[in-house]
Amino acid sequence: MDDLPISVMGSNFKLNGVIDDPLPGEEDSDSTETRIGISHVRSGSFHSRSGSTTPRNRQTSPTHSPRLAPSRFGSFDQFSGDVQHASSFSGLKLFGFPLNHSSQKFKIDKRAKKRAGTVWYQRKRIKGILFLILLVGLFFFVNWVMLLRLQEQNDRIQEHDDNTVNPGFSGNVSSSRISVQGKRKISRNKWPKGNYGRLLALAAHALAEGENKPEPKDLWQEPVVASSAWKPCADQRNWEPSVERNIGYIMVTANGGMNQQRVAVCNAVVLARLLNSTLVVPRFMYSSVWKDVSDIYQEDHFINYMTPDIHIVKELPDNLRSLDLEAIGSVVTDADIIKEAMPRFYLKNILPILIKNKVVHFLGFGNRLAFDPLSFELQRLRCRCNFHALRFVPKIQRTGALLLQRLRQKEGYPGPLDKHLVGSFIESTMKERKARSTKASRYLSVHLRFEIDMVAHSLCEFGGGKEEREELEAYRAVHFPALSLLQKTTKLPSPAELRSEGLCPLTPEEAVLMLAALGFKRKTKIFVAGSQIYGGNTRLTALTSLYPNLVTKEKLLSTTELEPFKNFSSQLAALDFIGCTAADAFAMTDSGSQLSSLVSGYRIYYGGGRMPTIRPNKRRLASIFSRNNTIEWRIFEIRVRKAVRQTKHILTRPRGRSVYRYPRCKECMCWTG
Fold first, then answer.
1. Cα 321 from chain centroid (whole Å)
2. Nearest-CA neighbor of 104 among 84, 79, 73, 87?
3. Which of 32, 196, 260, 376 has its CA at 20 to 30 Å from residue 530's CA atom?
4. pLDDT in tens, 403-431
5. Which of 593, 414, 588, 611 is nearest to 510 (CA)?
6. How far apart (Å, rounded) are the C-alpha atoms in residues 484 and 596?
7. What's the sign of the alpha-carbon dihedral 656, 660, 664, 666?
8. What are the sequence ranges of the domains in the chain?
9. What is the pTM of this model?
10. 3-state secondary structure 416-471
11. In this structure, are residues 445 and 547 in contact, taking their beta carbons and an 8 Å threshold?
């Protein structure tokens, strides 16, 4: 069938060639005679009646054959008469006998007859081929229409079942089930309305049919050779230990959650060294979102580890503690500092205040120090603080170790990052190592950055209609007033434009479709961080239906074990940080979130090339998801895997990007390849 257009074109070419081209061996001068012969062929019957001059009574003469009926190519009488007069032509012969001019015409007529028959046969053959093509095309079209009808019928049946059965949320498998081609039954809770119902059904079928198929080879791996060549070396110091600073004191009150606070502490360390000042141990600001001012890092370890680099004290001296810092102009807020300010900004604007008042208080100090340009030693100081100086307090480490034991279901097999996350509490997990011979189970961690603050700040829409828009607008008015005002006074991109540009966080439905397309099996254990999902358990239905072995810290730890963290959101976030960082594979749904950035960077720094991180290209995924009503599952798998595989490439830190997320640079890690 692939060669059909060529054959048809070739037949057309031959059709023209039969009439216009001379026969093989004939000269061009004979073309006129050829055309005469063809004319004779077409008018043979008329020629048989008017071409003969023999009287009618001569037809019975013994010298003539009886008159026969006219043939298709001329009368037989004409041929007989021409033979009798063959002696008058001496230049032509037929089978060795002289042949007159009429005999030559018969020869040409015979060839024309053959060519005309060939033309008729080729035309008939072309018509047959075209008819066959039409028939095959009609078959595929009807088959496609029938498949669409069946799909619509299945969707209507599913909608009817969902409306008549209220499965509820049990955390594992609901009572509403379907059977897939004789395979094991798959739970089918109600998909959230308008969110990829067709693709989720296809994913359920694919997971059921792929239980015995091997997973892709690179699913749990990094490009080991390239990634393992980078070794941690931010702990190496190339300068002299610091002496007590007398210029002044820097106080920092960090805002945001656990992750923003971590970045603020590292930036404060660099700023203290830049301004040749003493750092007061940073404190955390009360937030209407996080509502947590507790300490989450070991204060003594932080001071002792950073003392060779900067001078650190726990409190201001008595003579400065009584000052009204706001009155003397020593309070600097985020509004006074541009985002990612250059070092020269602090030398020009902050250093004079520090020299004059001996103290500067940065209130709400967040991401206010640029990554480039920054000297090698200051950048390394940043990495040293993040990866070595900040350790969680003992109660977080103890509960984090317990969380990891239950995630792996074995107590004797710590992971490669455990000692950096839970410290000395790793020893309790190793006591029973000799008594156990089975291998610890691996797990995948997923950070669903789909809390209401992220959803509201994104300005995107997620299928909730008018009710969702009103709820998010009300939240923005309270928690993000500047954004709410900007939304009213400035024409911002539409939700559809934001989504097409990859600026919206992945929904839980999109996240689970990505995991299924990548090849993670249905029985995979998945640890979900950030489980306070906008929309609640209903929004998690897609995840729990396709992957019933989904767990959170709330499921793995008892109420008694979580009681000390009940009112401390930053400490709960620290437990999520431990669970995600120690996982065998980590998948983020929003590459711009602080937790995802810090977790992925920590895994790179200490992972030794064995801790893969899945970073979705949200712009490409948005293009793929936009075809959710028509795309087939196999094509969906191929495109998603290609979009994610490209993000696994081993790259050094791009200029201007975070060293916490991209530690593969000479300031943080050393290349040994």
1. 53
2. 79
3. 196
4. 999 998 865 567 889 999 999 998 755 55
5. 588
6. 26
7. positive
8. 4-45+69-132, 224-228+442-450+505-671, 249-389, 453-494
9. 0.71
10. CCHHHHHHHHHHHHHCCCCCCCCCCCCCEEEECCCCHHHHHHHCCCCCCHHHHHHH
11. no
